[in-house]
Specification:
Blueprint (H helix, E strand, L loop, with lengths): L6 E7 L3 E9 L9 E8 L6 E7 L4 E3 L4 E9 L5 E10 L3 E11 L3 E3 L19 E3 L10
Parallel strand pairs: 1-8
Antiparallel strand pairs: 2-6, 3-5, 3-7, 4-6, 7-8, 9-10
Length: about 140
């Protein structure tokens, strides 16, 4: 079965790896002719993505009503958007799966405060505003 609208969207913290497994099911009528799954490749070779595994290993013959799985991982090295397409090639047609992911990180924005001139030993307190303007949680410690 060909589904050109397949898509994988992901967001993970910078430095983390996230994997997903795509299951391909051959929906031909039981007893129908098998199809040859030739390859799985990244169309643009985006280095943030990695083809981890195929079960069974490629190439393989897939029979009617049977399924196979392809695992792809994304490792966030930055917060930029990373796009590519996983192309599953059969002996009959290609199955494109869009890949779209980005890394997320906490990003601190703090207001500038001028304490002016202070005598040695004196204490002066002022309120400052600290915001996380990033796309991931951030824990502020001492």
């Amino acid at each position: 079965e060909k589904n050109a609208d397949s898509m994988f969207l992901a967001q993970t913290k910078i430095g983390d790896k996230i994997c997903t497994t795509f299951v391909v099911r051959y929906t031909a009528i039981a007893g129908g002719a098998p199809s040859l799954m030739l390859s799985a490749k990244l169309k643009n070779g985006e280095p943030a993505y990695d083809l981890q595994s195929s079960t069974p290993p490629l190439p393989f013959l897939i029979h009617a009503q049977d399924s196979a799985s392809i695992t792809v991982c994304f490792t966030a090295k930055d917060s930029l958007r990373h796009r590519d397409s996983l192309i599953l090639q059969t002996d009959c047609f290609d199955i494109p799966i869009s890949l779209d992911a980005h890394g997320s990180t906490g990003l601190i924005s703090a207001s500038a405060v001028n304490f002016g001139t202070i005598k040695t030993g004196d204490t002066l307190c002022k309120t400052i505003l600290i915001k996380n303007v990033g796309s991931a949680p951030f824990t502020l410690t001492s």
